[in-house]
Amino acid sequence: MTRSSTLRLRVTAVALAASACLLGAAASAQAAPAGGGSAVSVRSGGSVEVKETAQFTASSAGGSMETAGTGAVNLAYLYAQGAGWQRSQCYVLAVDLRSTGGGWFSARATLFCQR
User: Fold this and answer.
1) pTM for this predicted structure
2) Would you give per-residue pLDDT tens digits along the chain (115 residues)?
3) What is the rounded CA–CA span in Å between residue 112 and residue 103?
4) 69 DSSP assignment
5) Rounded CA gap, 1 and 100, in Å?
């Protein structure tokens, strides 16, 4: 997502919340970028909450699907922790397992993290 698209999402979220304030209704709006960056959450009470998000992807191979998948997930968590994220702030978004032949498997794991 480009910087201008992210800005447009933030402006839209603020406009929605401001409209709700003028009408006296309770409302909330969120804008979240696809890859990594920050998301904006605006509530009609006037508070603005900025949340940081990130995704981490890692690959691994092994002699079983379990070994390959576990290795990829653990490596993705290591990448996230190296970037300053706590394990409790992240969850496994997807694991793609494939047979590479000869009894070997490859895996690609993606984590989604949010503060």
Assistant:
1) 0.59
2) 554 444 444 444 444 334 433 334 333 333 334 455 655 555 556 666 678 999 999 999 999 999 999 999 999 999 999 999 999 999 999 999 999 999 999 999 999 999 9
3) 30
4) H
5) 33
Best CA proximity match to 52, nearest among 43, 65, 39, 33: 39
Residue 88 main-chain phi, psi, to 5 deg: -70, -15
The position carrying tokens 């992807």 is: 57
Dig out the tokens for 64 from the structure.
């079983």
Cα end-to-end distance, the chain, whole Å: 19
69 in Cβ contact with 98 (< 8 Å): no
Q: Please work out, in degrees rounded to the nearest 5, the angle formed at the alpha carbon of residue 45 by the alpha carbons of 41 and 46.
A: 65
Q: Pick the closest to residue 57 from 16, 17, 107 (CA basis).
A: 107
Is-contact 97 69, C-beta < 8 A?
Answer: yes
Strands (E) in the chain, as ranges, are 28-31, 37-43, 48-62, 90-101, 104-114
d(CA 83, CA 111): 13
